[in-house]
Specification:
Strand order of the largest sheet: 6-5-7-8
Distance between the termini: 19 Å
Number of helices: 9
Order of helices and strands: HEEHEEHEEHEEEEEEHHHHH
Shape: elongated
Structural class: alpha+beta
Length: 404
Amino acid sequence: MVFAFGVVLFALGIGVSIALHEAGHMWTAKALGMRVRRYYIGFGPKIFSFRRGETEYGLKALPLGGFCDIAGMTALDEMTPEEEPYAMYKKATWKRVVVMSGGIAMNFILGLVLIYGLLLGWGRGEPAPPVVQAVTCVAPDQLGQEGNFDLTECSGGGPAGEAGLRAGDRITAVDGQKTETFPEVAKAIRGVEGPVVFSVERDGQSMSITVVPDRVQRYVNSASGVPVKQEVSAVGIGGPSATWIEYNALTAVPAAFDYTGELLVDSVKALADIPSKVGALWESVTGGERAQDTPISVVGASVIGGEAADRAEWAMFVGLLASINFFLGVFNILPLLPLDGGHIAVVFYERIRDWFRARRGLIAGGPVDYTKLLPITYVFIVIGGAFMLLTLTADIVNPIKIFG
């Protein structure tokens, strides 16, 4: 019951994100003297609609996005004589850019608000200092069923203990790479093969200790925050990955901006990684194992949201919804039609072209002929549609399971 409620609630959260994205276009367009003819959430058959002033508001059956129909968005749009003075393509460059950026801005603002609420309600872990708290044996594997990520049993002193590392040692570098937090130490160890040299401070003295790691199976957080099982190196040292920090209404503000910056960087990286994930998605659809760092559809994200709600992991629920908003914002910046970034690119092209024309003593050129851009637009729509269908299929036949 709670799972189903979580799925519906998360899907509703995505719907609100889409609605606010389109509202960002609508509100800025109206504020800057343009006419918004229609504002709809969804596509396909109309469920209902109503009119307020010059704008028709409505909901359609397929929850795959939404649209804001602004009169004269391009010179190809058919307009009535009454709409001509409000045509968007006739407005100043800065006004057109503001309107096309309005949706992107709303996604970023909503993401920031969600992160602020996350920090205020649950706090956040900050990386702990690189001090060894315990020297242990190295478990060969890690569980991953039903949200249980405990290590399997092990015995012996472990590579670190056998090499001479002790509890209380502060690790200042791994193979010459400086380490300022315990997670940095773990990350530096994870990818090495063969002996590794630890630079250590002990009782005010500096020393170097060489350790030969074991290769083991561990769950590692991907850029999207989803745990992914990998073969990594481990030496058998223990320490806190984070120290938990609680925030009040004031201290959460700068922390929210810092966290937002990190998530924006992660979103850019995730977007850049999409082409390399197509093969893994196809493999998961055709019977292979579903990698947990592969892209997900709205359906897959909602299912993960439902699982988080079912286990009362509300911080994960809110964080995932915030991440989706940042990704949507970054995705829409791409200078490809029909995305917002594509329309912004056209506006800047017209401005730069007219600047060069003015330098040559020529009058400003007319609006860009969008018919010449249609072939590229159709190619992007077909590729994007195929990718969305692939992720949706993968989420149905082989979904990602964070909690095992």
